[in-house]
Amino acid sequence: MLGVGGSELVMIFLVILVLFGAKRLPELARGIGQGMNEFKKASDDLKREFDKVQEEARSATSIKSSKRTQSHNEAHQDKQEKSTQN
């Protein structure tokens, strides 16, 4: 866990306890938890939006490719029809 051992965690907890006091510690922990939850929600929303845009780009590329192929096939077919008529 980030290179922090058990004794270091205890020391950090004691420093926080001295700085903020026992009464404010639950409030501080709640605030940190809410902040982490909001960060996670924002991260998930951003990932979902990125995936949506990426899927739209793939879809648009595939539509362009299929239209290009269809246009090429139609041109080739027209060419064959003209050559058979001559």
Mean pLDDT: 83
Structural class, please?
mainly alpha
N/C terminus separation: 79 Å
SSE arrangement, N to C: H
Low-confidence stretches: none
What is the overall shape? Answer: rod-shaped
**Rg from alpha-carbon coordinates:** 31 Å
DSSP, total strands: 0
* Estimated share of beta-strand residues: under 5%
Number of helices: 1
Description of the structure:
93% of the residues lie in helices and 0% in strands. The protein is mainly α and 86 residues long. The protein has a domain of 52 residues. The longest helix has 80 residues. The radius of gyration is 31 Å and the shape is rod-shaped. The mean pLDDT is 83.
Features:
single chain; 86 residues; mainly alpha
Short description:
This protein has 1 helix and no strands.
Layout of secondary structure:
Layout: H1 6-85
